[in-house]
């Protein structure tokens, strides 16, 4: 047991040190990491320990291992978010492993404001789930997702579901099919919620992605404002001229 714990502590220390150097640009994007032999000498440890650390760095999106070439440092300063795709944060975060986490800061069943009623085409007095989630990457709070879900379509939500993946719950547990979304992207000044929940020191703008999400029967069931700190994200799409 002591030997196993010692090995775990050793490879996590190697992982933490290399991750810190990548985060602080001491190991630059596009450069090659030292070889396994060089890392073994540098950290005074076994090759097995180095391989475990490299495997974890690869799983968490810090490096890309190329056969016969070595480990290439990836650009972690920005994260690609597909404009035309309809994916959950959990699906995107899986590429970042332990670097990403979600915190549910608000979940309540409520009668929405007139603006939300209009955006979601609701009847007067119809209830919604109001959900705020903070997305943290590399220990920085950089996305605030403000979700409103039609309570008639999604009758129950828990903090555990929201912490994991609402889309997974809707499709797997409720048996509904999420089909398409209309998106609007704007740049705005931060509001009180942005300052309260995000790390915004030095930033005077927020990139806001508004999503109107529909089921395959064309029912609008979700309206989302995904509020991004602008330095960390690039929104990508693929366009073809016919």
UniProtKB/TrEMBL annotation:
Protein's GO biological process: negative regulation of DNA-templated transcription
GO MF, one annotated term: DNA binding
UniProt xrefs under SMART domains: HTH_GNTR, UTRA
Keywords: DNA-binding, Repressor, Transcription, Transcription regulation
Protein name (record): Trehalose operon repressor
Domain HTH gntR-type: 8-76
Annotated Pfam families: GntR, UTRA
Key word Transcription regulation present: yes
Listed SUPFAM superfamilies: Chorismate lyase-like, Winged helix' DNA-binding domain
Native source species: Peribacillus deserti
Classification via NCBIfam families: trehalos_R_Bsub
InterPro entries listed in its UniProt record: Bact_HTH_transcr_reg, Chorismate_lyase_/UTRA_dom_sf, TreR, Tscrpt_reg_HTH_GntR, UTRA, WH-like_DNA-bd_sf, WH_DNA-bd_sf
Gene3D superfamilies: Chorismate lyase-like, Winged helix-like DNA-binding domain superfamily/Winged helix DNA-binding domain
């Amino acid at each position: 047991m002591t030997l196993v714990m010692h090995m775990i502590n050793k490879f996590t220390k190697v992982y933490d040190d290399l991750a810190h150097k990548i985060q602080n640009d001491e190991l630059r994007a596009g450069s090659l990491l030292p070889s396994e032999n060089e890392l073994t000498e540098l950290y005074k440890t076994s090759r097995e320990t180095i391989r475990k650390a490299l495997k974890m760095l690869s799983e968490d999106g810090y490096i890309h291992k190329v056969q016969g070439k070595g480990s290439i440092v990836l650009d972690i300063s920005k994260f690609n978010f597909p404009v035309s795709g309809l994916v959950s944060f959990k699906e995107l975060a899986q590429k970042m492993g332990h670097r990403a986490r979600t915190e549910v800061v608000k979940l309540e069943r409520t009668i929405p404001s007139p603006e939300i009623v209009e955006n979601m085409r609701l009847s007067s007095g119809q209830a919604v789930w109001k959900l705020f989630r903070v997305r943290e990457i590399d220990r920085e709070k950089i996305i605030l997702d403000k979700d409103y879900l039609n309570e008639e379509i999604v009758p129950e939500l828990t903090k555990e579901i929201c912490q994991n993946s609402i889309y997974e719950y809707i499709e797997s547990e409720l048996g509904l099919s999420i089909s398409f979304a209309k998106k609007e992207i704007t740049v705005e000044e931060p509001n009180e919620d942005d300052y309260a929940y995000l790390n915004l020191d030095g930033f005077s703008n927020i990139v806001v992605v508004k999503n109107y999400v529909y089921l395959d029967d064309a029912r609008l069931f979700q309206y989302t404002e995904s509020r991004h700190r602008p330095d960390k994200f690039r929104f990508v799409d693929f366009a073809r001229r016919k």
